[in-house]
Every structure is written in C-alpha cells, then in structure tokens.
Write the structure tokens for this entry.
Amino acid sequence: MTQIHVSTKINGDAVEFLCEPNETLLDVLRDRLDLTGAKEGCGTGDCGACSVTVDGRLVCSCLMLGAEAEGREVTTIEGMADGEVLHPLQQKFLEHAALQCGICTPGILVAAKALLERNPDPTETETRYWLAGNLCRCTGYDKVIRAVMDAAAQMRGA
Amino acid sequence: MRYEAPRTLESAVSLLAGEPGSAQILAGGTDLLVRLRTGIGEPDLIVDIKRIDGISAITAENGGWRVGAAVSGAEMGEHDGLKADWPGVVEATELIGSTQIQGRATMAGNLCNASPAADSVPAMVAANAVARVIGPNGTREVAVGDIATGPGKTSLAKGEIVESIFLPARAARSGDAYLRFIPRTEMDIAVVGVGVSLTLDASGTCTAARVSLGAVAATVLLVEEAAATLIGSPVDEAALERLAAACSAAAKPIDDKRGTIEFRTKVAGVLAKRAATIALERAKG
Amino acid sequence: MALDDKHEAEGRVFKIVGTRPIRPDGIDKVTGRARFGADMSAPGMLVGLILRSPHAHARIRSINIAKAEALPGVKAVVTRADFGNVSDDDLRDILHNVMAHDKALYDGHAVAAVAATSTSAARQALKLIEVDYEVLPHVIDVDEAMQPDAPVLHEGRSDETVPAGMSANIMHRFEYGHGDVEAGLAAADEVIERSFKTAATHQGYIEPHACLASMGPDGQADLWCCTQGHYMVRNTCAGILGMEVSQLKVTASEIGGGFGGKTTVFLEPVALALARKSGRPVKMVMSREEVFRASGPTSSTSIDVKIGMKRDGTITAGWAELRYQGGAFPGSPVQFGAMSCFAAYDLANVQAIGWDVVANRPKQIAYRAPGAPMGAYAVESVVDELCGKLGLDRLEVRLKNASRDGTKAAYGPRFGRIGLTAVLEAAKAHPHYTAPLGPNQGRGVACGFWFNFGGDTCVSLNVNPDGTVGVSEGNPDIGGSRAAMTMMAAEELGIPYERVRTTIADTSALGQNDVTDGSRVTFAVGLATIKAARAAITIMCARAAKIWGIDADAVVWEDGHAKPAGPNAGKFPPMSLAEIAAVATNTGGPIAGHHEVNAEGAGVSFAAHLVDAEVDPETGAVKILRYTVFQDAGKAVHPAYVEGQFQGGAVQGIGWALNEEYIYGADGRLQNPGFLDYRIPVASDLPMIDTVIIEVANPGHPYGVRGVGETSIVPPLAAVANAVSAAAGVRLTELPMSPPKVLHAIDAARG
C-alpha cells in the first residue's frame, strides 16, 4: 500500500504524518506519534477508551482512518492539561478517587470534557447516558459520575 | 487498499463505478471500520464522501427536510427544525451506539449497512422517507424501505450512492416515535425496533398511520395490517391491543445471541403499543 | 491470641491512615502519561501474532510453517516444537494452554505464532501456516461433560478422589463439612431443594493482554508486561523456556484491570520464544476477540442446594453439590466454592461437595473471589426462599444463624475475630432496608465471604539523603495500593505522606512476591511495609543514640523524630528523620529497612448487600434502583479506595447476574467475543452504589487491615437474583437473568 501524507492539527500543534490507508487514527496516534494516552480496549467502538475529539466532536479514534484527519483538529488526553495546570475534570478525578486502574480514564476525561462544553450543568442521568460509551470495569462508575458533576459545578463557579 | 476523498458527487460515482475490484463508501465509518478490523475483508477502494459539497447539510425542502448522507446523528440531534417535525426519526438515529458513535454515524450509512436491526430504518420507513440515489445512470428516488434487500445487501447498483434522505412535510396533528428493546440501557443492537407515525383529524381519530418493525425479519417490515388497526380509531386501549397483536403476528424473527423468537414476537407487540402512545401524544401536540 | 484480646492498634490515633490523600500515580493516569502494557516500544521491534484454532476440539496432525517463514518481513515462526518438555504438571498445563500440544482444546486455542516487521506481514503469515486438524466431538456444558459418554479431553487424568466409572472429564472431587445432614434436614420444619446454573463470565478488564519481550544472544531477557504478578510471570516463563530465573527480568507496566484474569501467562512465553528465535524485540497485544476467546474466563456452573430451616428461622442443615467446568485443563475454583458457600452460617450439619470438570472452553483463571459468587448465589437464593416461605425477616434469619468469633466454619477451621454480625446489624439499621417499594419492585439481600490471603512478600524501604523515603515493593497496583503503602509507611515513620514514594520494583530488585490477588496487598504488603518501616526506625534510633552517646534502647521514635526515652536518657533535642538521614554517611552508612515474609494472619471478610430492582413485566427488563454494600474492611487505610473496591465488585456482580454470559454455538465456537454482545454494565445502567465500611480489626495485621477486593463480588449475584425474583414474582434459578429469561419465567408463572 502506498502511504498517505496527512497534515492535521493535534492538541493545537500542526502535525504531519504518513500512514497506510487502512490505519486508524488510533493506530497513528499511538504507533506513529507516540501519543499513547488514547487506548485500544476493543478496536470496534464498543468501549470508548480511544476517545478523542475531531473538530470538537467526540468520536472513537479506532473507528476513524488516519487519512480522515487531513485538515481537521484533533484533541486527545495529552492536550487536556494546560502545561502543569490540570483541567478541573482531571483534578476532580484525583480528588474523588474516580479511577482505579486508570485505563479508561483518558477516554472518560475526553468524553466528560466534551459533555461539559455542550452542557455545563448536566443531571446525573444526562451524565450517565453521555458516558455510556465509556466502559469502566473497576469503579462501577459511581465516583466517576460524582467527579464529573463536581467538576461541572466548579467550572460553573457554583 | 486505496483511500480516496473526492470533492464532488460525480467523481465519487465514477470512482465507485470504475473500480474493477471491490469498493466501499465511507461516511461515518462506524460499520465499515468494524468490518475492516474484524478482518471480514478489506475492499480494494474506500471512497470517503465527507468532503463532497453539500453532503453534510440539512436543508428545508417543500415543507420537509433533506438530510445529506454525511450528516451525523449528533448533528441531527442538534437541529431544532428536524427534531420538531420528525422526533421519532431523530431519536431513532440517536439511539445508534454511544455518544462517540453518534459523532460519526449517519442515517444513510445505517440504512445502506442493511442490518435487519438498524435503528434508524423503522423510523424512516414509518415516516415514508425517500432516499435519493445517484449513480452512473443518473438519479433515482427510492423509498427507504426498498433499499435493503436482505442482511448486508442493498438494491444499489455498482457505482450508486445514497446522496441524501428526504423526510416529507409533516401533516398537521401528526407525530412519530421509535422505540427499541435492548437488554442494557445503551450500547446494544436492537432486539426489536418499532417505528410508528400517525396522523389525527380534528376529532382525534387516526386518519393515517405507518407501522414499521425492525430486527424481527431479514429486512425492516412495513406492517399494513398493524396500521389498519389504528386508522379510524381514537388509538385507545382496544386499538392498541389490536395493534400489538398485528405486530406480533407480522414478526418473523430468529433465535440468536440477542433474543429468542418467543421474546421478539411478544415484545414487538409491547413496543408497538408504547411507541404508538408516544406518537399519539406528539400528534396531539 | 484470645478472641477478646485488644488489637494492638486499638486506641491508636492515626494521622494519615483513614484519610483520603491523592494517589501518587494519579497524575500520570489522568494525563495519559502512564505506560500500560501496550504503551511500550523498542527499536527494531517486531509484531507478534498468534494463530488460533477455529475448532472447539481437534487433533493437530501437522503444522507446516514453511510458507509463513518464507514470507518477506517474517523473522520467526514458533509452534509447540519450539518449547521443550516440562516436568511439572501445573507448568505443563500452562504451557499446553499457551501453545497447543497435540490437540486444540477450545475455539481460540493458540497453535502457532509469528513475529514480523509489520502487522500486515504478520497477518499474512498467519494465513500461510497450514494446520491439519482432525476435528473431534466437543463438549461445552458442565453437566454434559460429566456424562460417562461425553467426549474426553484428557485420558487418565481423573485422580483418586473420582469414583470409577465416571466421565474422564472429572478431575477431582472435593468434600467439606461436618455433622449429620440427613438428621438435620429431618429436624427442619421446611426443606427447600433447588438447582441453579450460572454461565461463564469474563473479568472484563478494559486493557487487553500485552507484552514486549527481548532476548539477547547470551540468553538474558527482558519482559515488559501488564500483569498482576511479574514475579509469577518470571518464574513461569523461565520454567517454560528452560531459563534460570535470574536470566529473565520482568518489569510490570501499569495494569489496566486484572480482577484475577492476569494472574497467569498467555502471550508472555510465546513473545519470549519469538524474541529468542528472531533475535529481536517482539511486541504482542491481544485483540478484544482474543481476550474473550483465549484468556481465562471463569467457570460455568451447575449447583444443587438443599437447606432445612425451623419455623423460628434456625437453619438445621445445609447441603450443596457444586459442579464447575474449568475449561480445558483441571483447576476450576470449585474447591473455593464448596469451602465458602456456607461460610456465613454457624451450622451443626453441613456438607458441600465439589466436582472439578474439564470442557472444551478456554482454561479458566481467577475472577475475584474465584468460585465463591456462584456458590453464594445458590445458597443465598435458597435461604431467601425459605425466609419467604416461613414469613421471616431476611436479615434476622442471617443474624440468628450467623458465623461469629469461634464458629467452626463449614470448611474446617474456627473463625477468629470476624465482622459478620456487625455487617448484618449495620444493614438492618440502614434506611435502605425499610425504604418503601413501588409496583413491580423487589428488594434482595445476600451475604458473602472471602478468605483473603497472605503470601510471599518483600518490601524494601530506603531513606534518602534528603529525608524523603522510597518504598520498593513487588506487587502491581491494581486498585490504588501504592497510596495505601505510602500512607502506612508515612504513618509509621511519622513523616508527611508527600515525603514517601512507593514504586513497584522489577523482578531483579526484590525476592519472591506472590501475585496481586487474594486481596492480599493492603494486608501483606502493608504488613511488610510497616515492619520495614519499623526496622528502619530501629536503625535510626540507633544512629541517634550513637550521635548522643547513649544506649540505643534509650531512644524512642515519636512523631517522625528520635527522642531520648526519658529524662534519665539525657537532654537531647529530638532529631527528625531528615536530620538523621543527612548525616547517615557519618553514622554508619545509608539507612534502610526491609521485611520478607510469607504473611499469615489474613483476616476473612464478610459482606451483606441490599439491592432494589424493578422488573418490566411486559418485557422482562430489569432496572437496578438502589444498591448498598456493607462490608468489613478491618481497617480502611484509604477509605475512598476501599469504597471503590466495594462498588467495583458490586457492579461486576450486577453484570454477572443480569446480562453477562459466554454464548456458544452448536459448533462449540464462542459467539460473542466482544463488548457489543458480551454485555458489561454501562454508566446509564446503574444508580450510585452506596457503601458502608465496617471495621472489625483483624488481629493479624498491625492496623487491623482485612483484604477487601474480593468479598464485594460474592453477594451481588444472589442479592440481585433475590431482588429480581421478588419484583417479578417468580424465582429465577439461572444466570444471567437476561430479559428473555425473565419474561419467559413471568409468563410461565402466569400460566
């Protein structure tokens, strides 16, 4: 296969890469760009561990070809903190012990950030349904939901 | 495998028609990439239609809505006009997968993937939606219910693309709804799906109805006997019981890892009652 | 120690233990910096992939790898022929599971592996391997596998406990109990006998197995892998590959979930063999489908229970026969199931029989309290039914019959200090127990028990020149244990939490460490950490004594400082740990404390769960409305992580009860090897999981810690089944209680 040249933006930085036509965006992030924060839990869009945003839209990077990133803006977990200042969601996850093994955490944080950008005051039910595509096997979701809603409250200045 | 992202429909059609090997269309990719991943077989060519002008637009047309083939479920859910007129179609599309899937999956892709359990299709069939198909021999309008011919198979010829789906103008005092049964609250493929669209007259009697069942046959069913139970009735308890019976009778499901024949047959009737009730409330406004 | 002895920590005011500091590895995990199994790479690395049997049972007549080896980009192909003979039975079974020997024993069984320069070359190479299979009849169900005419997996491996004439798939018969069950049943006012079935489930960790192996020409090897026990991986791989243990250095990555499923090896010996043969590093990552088909789900079971109860609620006898299939090799957890199923009850007459059976399924491995949830499901369902029949309160009956300090357990020993009655009293007093229920809603109660384990443990605690402290331990952190070790070390040393850093050392740095399992880490590694800290304190007191010119036993340690023991010892201002550390070079050298032990004295842990469920009578859909966990933690070092264990175990149990199951076709192939159709709970399926931590100190640990990780999955199967049965108005006796099953039961009951 001839490789495709892609120009894109990742976490605000201009990035260029070569990829095979059948490589997913997840493959590219992890294996070509060393951005291993997004994880492959299933490869079929059922677990959300690979979540990123593309032009502001929350997607599974395992269900997108690397070639499709041409001209788009991708944000990953690596772009969530501002230098050494954690995003309120990241901070609240630590405070609430909303992670145990941590493998689902990058995906959930990216998804939760996308939620709060759309809906700064979600109910518990709205939060749970938004995050239904992010599987977690360790926490039972309880502390995750609490952390997201607490972060939302803080970000609202409530 | 090659990847192309044409900018016009014409070039997309000629790429697809001219491909000697196998070619697949890529819109949201939420079915196609799963197939690539599970090694069912890589096509020789993937044609990404998302960069085609206008293919991601939702446009008002003749009182109805034309939804471009690359419009995602998330975008449909953010469109107030579409939601107001066809809430059942929008909610059906929004049930597909997770929030992440919603960010990419399209109604047209859901239709052309031709899964018997596709969520958007019963709602589209109930809405009498029409697909605009563009191909090497020109344009044709195809009722959505005539696109899928069997599991994974469509009536599209080589080189043809669904360019958009038209949802007709909604009559006054009408409403639609879609319900599906899944064992969890999200993330599952529909075990049974029911789309109902109905219209009332000023006295509250149903004058028109379409009832469509998903996941209980090789393709989505439009059940005229079921619609007949509602037409001429006030959609009361008795009519709903007849509706349920007609839907259970029309269902031709299989036993598989997601449900049994017994279960699907029964629940088709139960969901039909519930969907019709919601459609009724929406019709009353 | 007498049962009424005071615990050594009683009355102690803890400064750090019991608080909720932020975990030391937290920032890496919320920023994506943490490196898990698949996040490592090496220059020149090859991709390794496995060829797997598409047959549930087949003789492997031949494997031809020539074409695969000849493909450009392929650097090594291995089969069973590349592994030598192994004399140890257990090790041989592991090897034969990791790479099929003469038979493929389940759909997905590994038969060959390749290492190539790209994934596409590796995939192509797999297609070029020619395997000649002779397909054999297969057996999937445990009761069918026990039939005398069932297809046989291994001839002649039934041991002496199995009566002659029984199926050759039966490996072992276990029996526990005491008293006279027949007499006990005869004395009952009500006897209920029921049969139950549970489907196989998977631990469901989100991170697939992954490793990166490299071996030099001198036979020295490095392995990076996600595992619950890198020392186990080292020992097992060395044994399989004929290496000395010291030639193989294993580093544990961060682990993305284990729950017991990563307490053995799958890819690792294969990756090492490929690395050896190719001379290059080899990375192997399982796909999700491979995880389901070819790692270690838990047993499916078939269980009969008979319990007799008097009208006043006294249980007069309990009897159970448990039949578990453990996949293609012996060693299902039926032993633990038989031992634990009646553990919550003080019974004069009890018997539990367990059968370990093989079947053409992947070899099972531990899943959080292995074997116990299924046994508890059966016993707690029958107790629930008896309570209903006799009109008795479910918690009162548990209290009446509860195991207490000194009770002779059904599995043999007498309990020491235990917390079951405290747990039950807390449940009884909780508002959840008396909250009103609506139509189609039901409440379920169930108890659970787990033994908890100690095991081989090494901790090395080093005092740095600036007064910070490093703790080296050998147990991968699957639940936040580094935070707990840091807290215990800081507590004991009397210094701030932030001055201590705990790392998981690779296998070259410490002696033997048992796997992170058995809920042993906070108990055993914690105990060793405390003792290592105390050893360091002894040294620091001696250093202060040397500086002051007094006897070492005239120095005490208080609040992070060495102090003269009393006014007679001399007037010396206290020396802080940092001050002692700063002059360590001059007083004898670097300061460290260490402790190695096979820890004993793990305290058993009991739990009770309350759950409210609602059933849609027209569709059989179940909704969990409310859930409360009551569990004895002994001493909660970090309460947030204890709560997390309670919640995680409960939710896995909810999934197991409602929707999770391995679905096989008539061809013996797994039909749902993915998260789409293997349905674990999603966030919208659940309410908040409330938790109540009970603390009845374990005499075997300096702070009273009991393991908590496993007990939490033992009650939910029964609790949810009891709630659903109450809500649906009909007893469900098969798991999972998926909607088609529930609806069928409701319709059948309605007639």
